[in-house]
Amino acid sequence: MSSSHPLDLRLPTPGCFADPERAGLDADAVFDGMTEHLFFTLGKLAPTASNHDLYMALSYAVRDRLMTRYLASLEAIRARPHKTVAYLSAEFLIGPQLNSNLLNLGISKDIAEQALRRFRIESLDQILEVEEEPGLGNGGLGRLAACYMESLASLQVPAIGYGIRYEFGIFNQLIRDGWQVEVTDKWLKGGWPWELPQPEEACFVGFGGRTESYTDGKGNYRSRWIPSEHAIGIPHDVPVLGYRVNTCNRLRLWRADATESFDFYAFNIGDYYGAVEEKVGSETLSKVLYPNDGTDEGRRLRLKQQHFFVSCSLQDMLRSLGNRGIPIEEFPNHWTVQLNDTHPAIAVAELMRLLIDEHYLDWDTAWDITTRSVAYTNHTLLPEALEKWDLTRFRSLLPRHLELIYEINRRFLQQVRLRYPGNDAIQRKLSIIDEDGGKAVRMANLATIAAHHVNGVAALHSDLLKRQLMPEFAEIWPEKFTNVTNGVTPRRWVALANPALSRLLDEHVGPEWITNMELLTKLEERQHDTAFLEQWGATKLSVKRKLAGYIHRQTGVLVDPSSLFDVQVKRIHEYKRQHLNALQVITHYLRIKNGQAEGMAPRTVIFGGKAAPGYYMAKLIIRFINGIAETINADPDMEGRLRVVFLPDYNVKLAEQIYPASDLSEQVSTAGKEASGTGNMKFAMNGALTIGTLDGANVEIRERVGPENFFLFGKTETEIMELQTNGYRPRQIVETLPELAEALRLIGLGHFSNGDGELFRPLLDNLTGFDPFFVLADFADYLRAQDEVNQAWTNRKQWNRMSLLNTARTGFFSSDRSIQDYCQTIWKAEPFPVEITCDVP
Question: CATH topology for 81-96+131-484?
Answer without folding.
Answer: Rossmann fold (3.40.50)
